[in-house]
Write a sequence for this structure.
């Protein structure tokens, strides 16, 4: 058995020796450098574009919207975002002109020689003042008025979360070139088939004339979900016009200022409860800032909306949500995808309720938390794999939460102590895979190929971006076949080689695509049994069996397509039903202390238990949990993009600070494995889950330490100081 | 012409003396294990050892590397024969997306080689100039401690 | 990266005398020490076409000389060198502590004391320590040498009082006549490591006779366009007993010498409050 074992990371040796080739490492002969001229106003009409006559433009290739052969559109959900601004600009840093030159520095110099004049238009920069709604949702369960009427107390709260930069260490980078009439696009990206779809519309080409290949990718976290479609279009326009390869590699300040970030959000709760702390009514309003174009905002908001009520049973719920337009760079995918914003509110709201009811938030959570048989806000019955309680109890025990609450209460009463100490708790659910009917529409495919030489190759478009996709696929395939994982290699995501497994997002790669890989490998196993008599036991036997199964062909592919589990039903119109096939669960306790002189927060320890169904590879799974939690802690304590006039002004790693090794706490991670009958070997989604709850747990711990509930992230020393004034 | 020693072999460079060390290593000497993450000396992905000490190669013009010894990740093990430190990273989950890894390894390598203390606190302090967005650092710290303790390859 | 290496002219003097001569000939050249500041701007493409005066070969400026009345630090001495020097560790611990908070190892191995002074960032981590040790910068130029008290070398944000053609050759740290009773350094950065200061403090106290304060030297960085000695506070405290009343009065006087602002890293209000807290704790003997 390979599943459950710590197989060493497949991509490890290459990455550890500097051999792994990220886009900027790839030697592409004759490749030019592309740069982007961007909008200097948040909203306006382009009056003129002038090119400095003193500059040798004949050395360059210059592209504007006029050069786009097909649609000037980055295809995603709504057809609203142009590939290059044409006439109107709707946000700062919007791409207008592209330039390529053989020399990188000269390309940047050329960009400086382009002068664009605008007729400025008034921008809307504050989401609360925006009247343009991209998307809204309504979830209703039970009778809200009756719920409030029956309530002994009603508690209201408003919670705010800022944007967040993905801060992958490899900036966005894509190269394009044409080879034998095929447009090849290669680079750092999460979703090859998203790029392919966008390219088809931009270049009016069929799939056979476009090939998208992922290179080793230095982190994504959602930041390379949709943006690479735009960058690929830019690189390809330049490459086709130049008749040679062109790569665009952003530098850090451009990447930070121009590319997508987490949606800022304001969430309001009005909650009715009985005296003993039972939830009777939840009325929740969610507002998110989509930025200038709709991009993925509708689905980010959807996930946020579906998680807004938290991992708790409440008979009467209303969630009203909307995402609006502002004249700022479009916000997009970031690990958690809307859920961290709404869960921050849902979880921190317990601390407010605890104060009103004089019942601690742990007791309140225990009273209301999801169990087998609970019903969610969309009316979904949770019939299996509900590990919320177990995560909570394991976290409470291992963190010594109850004892520490008391100990720190005593500590904080002593004015001689130089710190305040606090421990805060948070719990969440996170739906794995696409929302509602999303997986049905995706109809993902994955497979396994057997070559006549006896090689076994996993075929999927899911990308390895550091999370361990390739290792996990090999382990799943190995156990599905009953063979060692070392027999399997994993094909590079290349749209001419692998089927469309859907995007590498939404915590779906293991549960959904891993499941497909498992099913495809079962078909291979059946073929071995029927045509060779049994599954080969040695490499030699594998080669012999391969010759039999391939019957002279170079390879035989076993491919399967997603099939909706029959028990899953969902209605997009009413937002009722099974929003997700299953949920993962997590609980976290953050133990911290605050310096009384400086209000600086030091994380003492983080304890977390996470129910992921089954850890296919525990070291990799724990790596996801610790890494994802650390991103959550960064958002909770440090990270805040500062916007001025519609553009991020701390767009450097010096001033947008992410945690260092000295900021990150020691972690104790406990894996909870409540198997999901539809997941491969019981596995559920994992990637986003750990991002969801560090924020509210930090805020709860700060409240415990200082007595002040700060309803805003990040909980900076400045905000703590202000709260204590 | 600028002469320097890179991973033990003598090199000479005839291009612009203000070319950055990172660019010379990547473009002229083919050592693409050196990564650029920020170009402002903040992320440490471009860390190499200059006369044995970690530096950000994005902040070093080549004219300042004349006569000096440069070590990059390529001087450690190979995929077939990882160094003890690299093997520690593989076993403990010290690398995820891998883009910070070469710089992280070089800083860790200098720290372990200096025979400095290798407990949680000192390793975290030593690595605090290398940003990692994937791991949350714990497994990196574990990897370094494991390697320093002389765990078997 | 937007710098154009081919557009740059590099001047490479091998001695101090050559450096001064070369700089006199090319007064618009950018002096380059450890590059930890200059290269950041260069990478952004802000210095293309300029000349650079690369000082890295000037060996005499890389030495730490202990002399009878103090320590002479060559301007190209790195933050790492300072931390490793036994005499500096013993006699100038606040400077050593400050150097350990400048960036992380990679920056400390390259960044130089002289380069940092010439760069004149309001947030320079070592400057408060240099202020309370009453360091002197020695500069050399076409018209010879002069000594500038460290507090007089900073003219504003990223501005110095260096005259055209002048280069910093050394920083002199005088041994105090008497060992201070206590001292402390405290940096409050944007995170636990590799951070820029929101406020940064150094202080030294010498107890006088009869339970009153003898000498006191206090300095803050990041609290004004340049590093500041707290003259008003120091004057107020000299000869006084340190008690609740005098300490709280001293903390009130802080704003006589500093004027922090709101910026992308912090707020005026926070900087003032925390600096007062730090000052108070230091005077109470509680600053660790």
């Amino acid at each position: 058995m390979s599943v459950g074992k710590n197989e060493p990371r497949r991509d490890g040796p290459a990455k550890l020796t500097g051999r792994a080739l990220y886009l900027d490492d790839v030697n592409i002969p004759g490749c030019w450098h592309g740069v982007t001229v961007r909008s200097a106003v948040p909203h306006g009409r382009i009056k003129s574009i002038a090119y400095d006559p003193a500059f040798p433009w004949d050395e360059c290739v210059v592209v504007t919207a006029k050069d786009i052969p097909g649609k000037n559109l980055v295809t995603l959900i709504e057809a609203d975002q142009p590939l290059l601004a044409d006439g109107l600009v709707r946000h700062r840093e919007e791409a207008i002109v592209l330039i390529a030159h053989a020399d990188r520095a000269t390309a940047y110099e050329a960009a400086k020689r382009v002068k664009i004049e605008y007729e400025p238009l008034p921008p809307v920069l504050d989401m609360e003042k925006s009247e343009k709604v991209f998307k809204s949702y309504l979830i209703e369960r039970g009778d809200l008025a009756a719920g409030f009427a029956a309530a002994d107390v009603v508690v209201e709260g408003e919670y705010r979360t800022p944007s967040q930069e993905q801060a992958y260490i490899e900036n966005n980078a894509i190269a394009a070139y044409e080879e034998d009439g095929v447009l090849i696009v290669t680079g750092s990206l999460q979703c090859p088939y998203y790029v392919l779809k966008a390219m088809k519309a931009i270049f009016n080409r069929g799939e056979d004339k476009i090939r998208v290949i992922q290179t080793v990718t230095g982190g994504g976290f959602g930041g390379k979900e949709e943006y690479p479609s735009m960058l690929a279009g830019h690189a390809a326009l330049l490459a086709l016009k130049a008749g040679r390869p062109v790569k665009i590699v952003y530098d850090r300040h451009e990447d930070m200022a121009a590319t997508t970030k987490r949606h800022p959000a304001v969430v309001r709760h009005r909650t009715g409860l009985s005296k003993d702390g039972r939830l009777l009514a939840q009325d929740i309003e969610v507002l998110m800032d989509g930025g200038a174009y709709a991009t993925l905002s509708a689905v980010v908001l959807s996930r946020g909306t579906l998680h807004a009520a938290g991992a708790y049973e409440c008979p009467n719920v209303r969630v009203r949500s909307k995402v609006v337009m502002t004249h700022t760079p479009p916000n997009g995918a970031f690990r958690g995808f809307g859920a961290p914003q709404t869960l921050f509110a849902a979880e921190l709201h317990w601390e407010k309720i605890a104060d009103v009811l004089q019942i601690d938030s742990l007791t309140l959570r225990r009273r209301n938390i999801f169990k087998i048989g609970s019903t969610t806000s969309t009316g979904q019955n949770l019939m299996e794999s509900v590990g919320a309680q177990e995560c909570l109890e394991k976290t409470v025990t291992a963190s010594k939460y109850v004892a520490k609450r008391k100990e720190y209460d005593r500590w904080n009463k002593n004015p001689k102590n130089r710190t305040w100490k606090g421990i805060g708790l948070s719990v969440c659910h996170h739906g794995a895979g696409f929302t509602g009917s999303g997986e049905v529409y995706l109809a993902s495919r994955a497979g396994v190929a057997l070559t006549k030489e006896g090689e076994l190759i996993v075929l999927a478009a899911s990308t390895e971006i550091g999370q361990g996709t390739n290792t996990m696929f090999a382990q799943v395939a190995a156990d599905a076949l009953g063979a060692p994982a070392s027999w399997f290699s994993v094909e590079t995501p290349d749209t001419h080689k692998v089927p469309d497994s859907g995007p590498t997002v939404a915590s779906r790669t293991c549960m959904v695509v891993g499941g497909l890989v498992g099913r495809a490998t079962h078909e291979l196993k059946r073929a071995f049994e029927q045509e060779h008599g049994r599954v080969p036991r040695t490499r030699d036997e594998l080669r012999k069996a391969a010759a039999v199964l391939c019957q002279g062909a170079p390879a035989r592919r076993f491919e399967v397509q997603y099939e909706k589990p029959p028990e899953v039903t969902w209605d997009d119109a009413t937002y009722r039903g099974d929003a997700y096939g299953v949920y993962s669960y997590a609980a976290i306790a953050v133990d911290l202390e605050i310096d009384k002189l400086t209000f600086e927060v030091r994380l003492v320890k983080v304890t977390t238990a996470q129910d992921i169904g089954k850890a296919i590879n525990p070291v990799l799974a724990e790596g996801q949990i610790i890494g994802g939690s650390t991103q959550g802690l960064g958002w909770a304590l440090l990270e805040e993009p500062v916007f001025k006039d519609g553009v991020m002004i701390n767009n450097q790693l010096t001033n947008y600070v992410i945690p260092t090794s000295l900021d990150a706490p020691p972690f104790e991670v406990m894996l909870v494995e409540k198997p999901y009958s539809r997941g491969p070997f019981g596995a559920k989604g994992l990637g986003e889950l750990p991002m969801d709850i560090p924020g509210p747990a930090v805020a709860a711990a700060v409240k415990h330490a200082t007595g002040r509930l700060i309803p805003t992230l990040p909980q900076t020393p400045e905000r703590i100081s202000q709260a204590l004034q | 012409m600028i002469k320097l020693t890179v991973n033990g072999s003598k090199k000479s460079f005839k291009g612009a003396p203000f070319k950055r060390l990172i660019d010379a290593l990547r473009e002229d000497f083919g050592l693409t294990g050196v990564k650029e993450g920020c170009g402002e000396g903040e992320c440490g992905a471009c860390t190499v050892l200059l006369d044995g000490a970690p530096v950000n190669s994005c902040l070093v013009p080549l004219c300042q590397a004349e006569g000096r010894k440069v070590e990059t990740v390529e001087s450690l093990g190979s995929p077939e024969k990882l160094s003890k430190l690299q093997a520690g990273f593989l076993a403990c989950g010290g690398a995820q997306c891998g883009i910070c890894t070469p710089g992280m390894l070089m800083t860790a390598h200098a720290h372990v080689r200096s025979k400095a203390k290798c407990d949680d606190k000192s390793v975290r302090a030593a690595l605090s100039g290398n940003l990692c967005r994937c791991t949350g650092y714990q497994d990196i710290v574990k990897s370094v401690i494991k390697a320093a303790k002389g765990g078997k390859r | 990266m937007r710098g154009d290496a081919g557009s740059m002219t590099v001047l490479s003097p091998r001695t101090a005398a050559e450096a001064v001569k070369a700089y006199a000939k090319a007064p618009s050249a950018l002096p380059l020490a450890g590059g930890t500041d200059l290269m950041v701007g260069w990478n952004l493409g802000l210095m293309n076409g300029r000349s650079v005066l690369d000082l890295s070969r000037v060996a005499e400026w890389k030495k730490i000389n202990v002399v009878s009345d103090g320590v002479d630090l060559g301007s190209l001495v790195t933050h790492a060198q300072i931390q490793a020097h036994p005499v500096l560790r013993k006699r100038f611990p606040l400077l050593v502590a400050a150097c350990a908070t400048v960036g992380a190892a990679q920056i400390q191995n390259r960044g130089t004391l002289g380069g940092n002074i010439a760069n004149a960032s309001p947030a320079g981590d070592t400057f408060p320590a240099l202020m309370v040790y009453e360091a002197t910068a020695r500069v050399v130029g076409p018209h010879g040498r002069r000594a500038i008290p460290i507090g007089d070398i900073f003219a504003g944000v990223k501005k110095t009082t260096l005259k055209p053609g002048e280069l910093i050759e050394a920083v002199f740290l005088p041994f105090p006549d008497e060992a201070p009773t206590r001292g402390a350094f405290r940096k409050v950065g944007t995170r636990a490591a590799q951070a820029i200061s929101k406020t940064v403090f150094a202080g030294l106290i010498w107890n006088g006779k009869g339970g009153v304060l003898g000498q006191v030297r206090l300095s803050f960085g990041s609290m004004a366009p340049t590093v500041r000695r707290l003259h008003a506070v120091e004057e107020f405290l000299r000869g006084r007993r340190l008690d609740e009343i005098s300490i709280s009065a001293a903390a009130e006087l802080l704003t006589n010498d500093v004027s922090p602002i709101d910026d992308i890293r912090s707020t005026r209000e926070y900087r003032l409050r925390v600096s007062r807290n730090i000052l108070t704790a230091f005077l109470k003997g509680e600053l660790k």
